[in-house]
TrEMBL record:
PANTHER family: ADENOSYLMETHIONINE-8-AMINO-7-OXONONANOATE AMINOTRANSFERASE, BETA-ALANINE--PYRUVATE AMINOTRANSFERASE. InterPro entries: Aminotrans_3, Aminotrans_3_PPA_site, PyrdxlP-dep_Trfase, PyrdxlP-dep_Trfase_major, PyrdxlP-dep_Trfase_small. It is an enzyme of class 2 (transferase). It holds the Pfam family Aminotran_3. GO terms for biological process: biotin biosynthetic process. Keywords: Aminotransferase, Pyridoxal phosphate, Pyruvate, Transferase. The keyword Transferase applies. It comes from Sphingosinicella soli. The lineage of its organism: Bacteria, Pseudomonadati, Pseudomonadota, Alphaproteobacteria, Sphingomonadales. This is Beta-alanine--pyruvate transaminase.
Length: 437
């Protein structure tokens, strides 16, 4: 006999299904900086859900925009048709992107944004008569979602090994994580810009005329907050330009104020050819992603194409009215409350709190940028990830939501947080680190 509240039917993503279902931890509601668990406890959200609820939970303006739109205009196709909400959001989004990256393609997630960006890169190369450029260069420890394109350019073995040969013609740069030289860096680490020279190595190996694009996260999030070394992104940009290779920044977590500007590109002063986004775009209230392409990319693919459909790609829900309405309301909040600047105004206070964890048991690195922190713990001998998982469970049970990846604690709170929340987060975290063995 099935029970309506049976936990067995939902095959949970990126989860230890068996472990969870034996000891479920359920969220029931959310508001502002907090979740409420199903047993009625208030849980301070130190991760903005999954790096996505940048304006805090259940914002009235967003809820009302969704409600009003759902009642008036539930769905409208965007294949050979359109509706004003999608055009308006694209225009607004284009205005906050770096100069020139104002041609917007809508998707429904970060993974779809990545695969869309890769396809746009291939279409661009072909349209300009460089059809031999089909190769992609990703980076070790990169996370670009879970589509076949994304896992192929991504660099996380756990996400790849179950899935065969994936996309052909992909190579990887080395990652920039270097505890020997950079442990406990505040902000951008000093060492590692030279790792960008891997592009030269791969160009020498494969030939520039076979490479369509390089894709990197400006700050790698999912593998534990890897902040770009000083000068690294600049050098990546230079080398892509030198070899006429497109540069894609995957900004699914860094866009929308996470590092103190609309995009990490703006924060670091390095402009790619294509930016992928999702998460903070709608404050996660309705799934939506987007790709911002440079005018040169759009014009090459679209303006120079023969009459008819220019790019054979799109999703039924590209530019969905509810997502577009949520996106517009979200961008309005970011602007009204100047939330993008929040990560700059609070950055020093946040960094002090992060680096105060330095001498706690097990901690081998603390790193930060904007309102992001990575606290790396030494793995238990023979039991990697177990210590971090214990920290996660203890945190949840004590009323704090953190995120763990490997043996790294990653923090990325909603941008509405106040100093008192920072004190509370790190006070609790310190207690947890002292309590675990
Ligand atoms: C950099 C990056 N790219 C892509 C994705 C995939 O996004 P989604 O889970 O919405 O498909 C993520 C998700 O965390 C991400 O951090």
């Amino acid at each position: 006999m099935r029970e309506p509240n049976d936990l067995s039917a939902f095959w949970m993503p990126f989860s230890n299904n068996r472990g969870f279902k034996q000891a479920p931890r359920l969220l029931a509601a959310a508001e502002g900086m907090h979740y409420t668990s199903s047993d009625g406890r208030s849980i301070l959200d130190a991760t903005a859900g999954l790096w996505c609820v940048n304006a805090g939970h259940c914002r009235t303006q967003i809820v009302e925009a969704i409600r009003e739109t759902a009642a008036r205009f539930d769905f409208g196709p965007t294949f050979q048709l359109g509706h004003p909400l999608a055009f308006e959001l694209a225009s607004k989004l284009g205005m906050i992107m770096p100069e020139g990256l104002d041609r917007i393609f809508f998707t429904n997630s970060g993974s779809e944004s990545v695969d869309t960006a890769l396809k746009i890169a291939l279409a661009y190369q072909r349209a300009r008569g460089q059809g031999s450029r089909t190769r992609f260069i990703g980076r070790e420890r990169g996370y670009h979602g879970v589509g076949f394109g994304g896992i192929s350019v991504g660099g996380i073995v756990g996400n790849r090994r179950q899935y065969g040969t994936m996309l052909g013609g992909v190579d990887h740069l080395r990652h920039t994580h270097d505890l020997a030289r950079n442990a406990f860096s505040r902000g951008q680490p000093a060492h590692g810009a030279e790792l960008a020279e891997d592009i030269e190595r791969l160009v020498a190996l494969h030939g520039a005329d076979t490479i369509a694009a390089v894709i990197v996260e400006p700050v790698a999030g999912s593998t534990g907050v890897l902040v770009p070394p000083v000068g690294y992104l600049e050098r990546v940009r230079e080398l892509c330009k030198k070899h006429d290779i497109l540069l894609i920044f995957d900004e699914v977590i860094t866009a929308f104020g996470r590092v103190g500007k609309a995009t990490a590109s703006e924060r670091f002063g390095v402009t790619p050819d294509i930016i992928t986004m999702a998460k903070g775009l709608t404050n996660a209230a309705v799934p939506m992603g987007a790709v911002a392409a440079g005018r040169h990319v759009y014009d090459t693919v679209v303006e120079n194409a023969p009459e008819g459909i220019e790019l054979f790609h799109g999703y039924t829900y590209s530019g969905h009215p509810l997502a577009a309405a949520a996106g517009l309301a979200t961008l309005a909040i970011y602007e009204e409350e100047r939330l993008f600047e929040k990560a700059i105004t609070l950055e020093a206070y946040w960094a002090d709190a992060v680096h105060a964890m330095k001498d706690l048991p097990h901690v081998i690195d603390c790193r930060n940028i904007g309102l992001v922190a990575g606290i790396e713990m030494e793995a238990r001998a023979g039991a990697p990830t177990k210590r971090a998982m214990e920290a996660f469970h203890r945190a949840f049970d004590s009323g704090l939501l953190i995120r763990v990846t490997g043996d790294i604690i990653a923090l990325s709170p909603p941008l509405i947080l106040e100093k008192t929340h920072i004190d509370e987060m790190f006070g609790r975290l310190a207690d947890i680190l002292k309590a675990i063995d």
